[in-house]
Write a structure and sequence with these properties.
By secondary structure, the chain is of the alpha/beta class. It folds into two domains: 183 residues, Aspartate Aminotransferase, domain 1, CATH 3.90.1150.10; 250 residues, Aspartate Aminotransferase, domain 2 (3-Layer(aba) Sandwich), CATH 3.40.640. The chain is built from 15 helices and 14 strands. A hairpin with a 4-residue loop joins β2 and β3. The longest helix is centred in the C-terminal third of the chain and has 25 residues. The chain is globular and about 65 Å long.
C-alpha cells in the first residue's frame, strides 16, 4: 500500500511546544513580548524557552531535544557547553569578575586575535557587534575629517539609529537599484540620522567607484560576504576593486565580520578572500557565546583611541571572564576543526539540494559550509539583496516550523550555522527530518 506524504506526516510523532508558549505568555508581564531581543519575537509556532544546551543539541522546557542550527544566531562554533571553555571560565571566576583595570588574560586574547586576523595590527575589545561598528564609524570620520558613510542594502551593522537603514527594505520603498533610498529599520529613527548615510547595492563595483570619486566618503562599511540576508559571496574581483577604490579616494574600508569572523576561516572572510580592510569588527564566534566583540585594524587608526582624541569606553570591555572565554575559543580553532565543519556542512548542503531536486521544489542552497542559506523559490543564486526579495518566505517559515516539530531548529531568515559538534550522525538525522518536512509542506500546498 502506498502512503501519501500527508498520511506519513500524520503517522509521525511530532513535537509539542505548549509549555514554551505558556511560559512566554506568563513572562510577558515582566519582559516586553516575553523576550529580550526583537529578533526572538514572532517565531513560529512560538518563541522557545530552553533549559540547557549540550554539543549540537538544545533541550527546552517541554522536554524536547532539538538539533540546533541557530547556534545562538552564530556564536557557538564549538557547540554548546564545550569543556575547554567551561574550564577556562570557571578558573577565571575563582580569580575575580571585574576589576576596572587590565589583566593578563585580556592581553592573551588580544594577541590571539592579532595573530589570526590579517587586518589586526591593533585592537580594542567591546561587548557587542553593534557597539564596535559604531566605534569603527567614529574612527573613520575622525581619520578622514569627513562625515558620510556608505553602507549596502541587506547588510546589517547593528540596531543604532545612524546605521539601521535598508537592512531588509521593501522594494516599494527602496527606490531605484542605482540610487537606493535609505529605509529606516525601526519606528523612532529620526530621518536626519540618514543625512550622512549613502546606501548602494552590494556587488556593483561601478556604482561604488562612481560615488567614491566625489571625494566626500569617510568610510565604506560592508559584510565581506553578505550573511545577514542570504549567504552571498562577493563577485570575482569585487572586494579587490573596493579595496583599490577606497585607497584611491582616501576612504576607510571597514569589514563587518561579526558573522563571518572566526567562522568561515580562522582569520575571517578577509583571509579567505585575500583582501585586507583598514578596520574590521568581530563578535559572535570570537568567544563562543560570551558577550565579546572587537574592533581591529591598522595601528594608526586604532591608536586614535589612545592618542587621537577618539573616545571609546565601556565598563564591561575586556571583562576577565569573557576574555578567558575568548582565549579558550580562539585556542580551540584548529585546522582539523575547520576541516570537520567543512566536511559535514558540505554534506548537509548537498543532501538538501538532492531532496529539493527529488521533490521538484525550486530552491537555492548557497554559502559556506560553516554558514549557508536556503532561498525557497529562487532558481539561481542571488548576487545582491534585491534578488533575495523574490524568495518564498512564507513557505520557508512553513518549512522551519515543520522541521522544528521533527526536532531540528533552524532560523526563519534562511541561515544555517554549523558547529564542530555537528557530526555525521547529526547530519544524517537532520537530512532525514528535512526530507520529511519538505514532503509535508509540499503535500500541504505551502509550496
Amino acid at each position: 500500500m502506498t502512503i501519501s506524504p500527508s498520511e506519513a506526516s500524520a503517522a509521525e510523532t511530532l513535537l509539542s511546544f505548549e509549555t514554551s508558549a505558556e511560559t512566554i505568555q506568563r513572562n510577558s508581564q515582566w519582559m516586553a513580548g516575553g523576550v529580550n531581543s526583537n529578533f526572538r519575537l514572532n517565531i513560529a509556532p512560538t518563541p522557545l524557552v530552553f533549559e540547557k544546551g549540550v554539543g549540537p543539541y538544545l533541550y527546552d522546557v517541554d522536554g524536547n531535544r532539538l538539533i540546533d542550527y541557530y547556534l545562538g544566531m552564530g556564536p557557538m562554533i564549538l557547540g554548546h557547553n564545550p569543556a575547554a571553555l567551561t574550564e577556562a571560565v570557571t578558573a577565571q571566576i575563582a580569580n575575580g569578575i571585574l576589576f576596572a583595570g587590565q589583566t593578563a588574560i585580556e592581553a592573551e586574547a588580544a594577541r590571539r586575535v592579532c595573530e589570526l586576523v590579517p587586518s589586526a595590527e591593533r585592537l580594542r575589545f567591546g561587548s557587542s557587534g553593534s557597539e564596535v561598528d559604531q566605534a569603527a564609524i567614529r574612527v573613520a570620520r575622525a581619520a578622514t575629517g569627513r562625515t558620510k558613510i556608505i553602507k549596502f542594502e541587506g547588510h546589517y551593522h547593528g540596531w543604532f539609529d545612524n546605521i539601521l537603514w535598508s537592512t531588509a527594505p521593501g522594494l516599494n520603498a527602496a527606490g531605484p537599484y542605482e540610487a537606493p533610498v535609505p529605509v529606516a529599520g525601526s519606528k523612532g529613527q529620526p530621518a536626519s540620522e540618514a543625512d550622512d548615510l549613502v546606501v548602494l547595492p552590494w556587488n556593483d563595483l561601478d556604482l561604488l567607484e562612481a560615488r567614491l570619486r566625489q571625494g566626500d566618503i569617510a568610510g565604506v562599511i560592508m559584510e565581506p560576504a553578505m550573511c545577514n540576508q542570504g549567504a552571498i559571496h562577493p563577485a570575482p574581483g569585487y572586494l579587490e576593486g573596493v579595496r583599490a577604490a577606497c585607497s584611491a579616494a582616501g576612504t576607510v574600508l571597514i569589514f563587518d565580520e561579526v558573522i563571518t569572523g572566526f567562522r568561515v576561516a580562522p582569520g575571517g572572510a578577509q583571509s579567505l578572500f585575500g583582501v585586507t580592510p583598514d578596520i574590521s569588527t568581530f563578535g559572535k564566534a570570537i568567544a563562543n557565546g560570551f558577550p565579546v566583540a572587537a574592533i581591529v585594524g591598522r595601528a594608526d587608526l586604532i591608536d586614535l583611541f589612545s592618542t587621537g582624541g577618539v573616545v571609546h569606553g565601556g565598563t564591561y570591555n575586556a571583562q576577565p571572564i569573557a576574555m578567558a572565554a575568548t582565549a579558550a575559543t580562539l585556542g580551540s580553532l584548529t585546522p582539523a576543526l575547520y576541516a570537520g565543519i567543512a566536511e559535514h556542512g558540505n554534506t548537509l548542503m548537498a543532501g538538501m539540494r538532492e531532496i529539493f531536486a527529488r521533490e521538484g521544489v525550486p530552491a537555492v542552497v548557497e554559502g559556506f559550509p560553516q554558514i549557508f542559506h536556503i532561498a525557497l523559490g529562487l532558481d539561481r543564486p542571488a548576487t545582491h539583496y534585491r534578488d533575495l526579495t523574490q524568495m518564498n518566505r512564507v513557505a520557508y517559515i512553513a518549512l522551519t516550523t515543520a522541521l522544528l516539530k521533527r526536532g531540528v531548529r533552524a532560523l526563519e531568515r534562511g541561515a544555517w550555522f554549523l558547529s564542530s559538534e555537528h557530526d555525521a550522525a547529526v547530519i544524517a538525522e537532520t537530512l532525514d527530518a528535512f526530507e520529511r518536512a519538505v514532503k509535508q509542506i509540499k503535500a500541504d500546498g505551502a509550496i
